[in-house]
Write a structure and sequence with these properties.
Structural class: alpha+beta
Number of strands: 11
Number of domains: 2
Helix content: 40-55%
Strand content: 5-15%
Largest sheet: 3 strands, antiparallel
């Protein structure tokens, strides 16, 4: 319809995506894979509030990491087997470090810092992002509070007034912002597929936590940090923000921040997975799915202690 020489063909996996998705990827052997499916929708709090969504609100979105990472691991491994590049759209700020710990190759994610950068670009009236650099996190989709604001630069000079510049975006209905995320994601995929050059900011670059300014060129994604900011400093800032978002992935281990761990123990006394190796993510995912099933049956605002039969156990 747009006059482009592109043809789309829909394929389905059936209800068990974890089992069917790798086989589908191997069957198609695509140039690249963009994963936008996970076990946990970010829209559940609005569409179906419950004791589960209340727990996520108390704990921070990072508590959903195992639910976001499960399909990314199997899809990323299948993509690597086929020699396909892999982009993960599901909470890439924290999931992509899990992929890196498990040696699953991942180029980057979409959304989050890309949405923030697009908003700043529009606010500054820039035609593109060549002059703009942004280090930020999923946390910064909302006002960050004590954790601190995202860090921006224009022509390598620190950008003042980031909070004011992002106020309009943060006041928008989140579902409407999907159009911006979609466009930023489409520009990324177009640059990768056609091996063209694009300056932007992306989350989870090569498995790093949080988001960074990057350059896409010849199918590769490289960091484009401002003068005076080292890679180690940018990573350290994103790890601080990850902690405020409820989760830290470092040294091959996944750690829930204290509010997230406390919320899990409140819902299920005896919860011992506050800290676990990345390769146990599927096991923790299964436990969270069982816990979520129980908590979804309890309305938001009603206490949801463990059931007599041990609840999620």
């Amino acid at each position: 319809m747009a006059g482009r020489d592109v043809r789309f063909r829909a394929l389905t996996t059936g209800p068990d995506m974890r089992a069917a998705l790798p086989e589908l990827i191997r069957q198609e052997a695509p140039d690249g894979v963009l994963l936008c499916a996970s076990h946990q929708s970010p829209w559940e709090r609005r569409a179906a509030p419950s004791a589960w969504t209340a727990l996520v609100g108390r704990a921070g979105f990072g508590v959903t990491l195992p639910l976001q990472a499960d399909l990314a691991v199997v899809a990323g491994r299948a993509a690597a087997e086929c020699g396909s590049w892999f982009v993960n759209a599901c909470f890439p700020d924290a999931v992509n470090p899990v992929l890196a710990a498990l040696r699953v190759p991942v180029l980057c994610g979409i959304g989050n810092v890309a949405l923030l950068a697009a908003s700043l670009q529009a606010r500054l009236g820039l035609p593109d992002q060549r002059r703009l650099r942004l280090v930020g996190h999923h946390l910064h989709l909302n006002p960050p509070g004590p954790a601190g604001e995202a860090l921006g630069w224009l022509d390598d000079e620190p950008l003042n007034g980031v909070t004011e510049a992002l106020a309009g975006q943060r006041a928008c209905d989140r579902s409407a912002l999907n159009q911006v995320t979609g466009q930023a994601g489409a520009m990324l995929i177009d640059a990768l597929a056609n091996r063209t050059e694009l300056d932007t900011s992306l989350p989870g670059v090569a498995g790093l936590p949080g988001g960074y300014p990057v350059r896409i060129s010849d199918g590769r994604v490289t960091l484009r940090l401002p003068a005076g900011l080292s890679r180690a400093e940018a990573v350290a800032a994103n790890q601080r923000w990850s902690y405020a978002d409820g989760i830290v992935v470092e040294g091959g281990r996944v750690s829930f921040a204290p509010p997230a761990a406390a919320a899990l123990r409140e819902a299920e006394p005896g919860w011992e997975n506050a800290d676990f190796p990345a390769d146990r993510t599927p096991e923790v995912c299964r436990r969270l799915l069982a816990l979520r099933e129980r908590l979804r049956r309890t309305p938001a605002g009603v206490s949801a202690g463990p059931e007599g039969n041990g609840g999620a156990r």
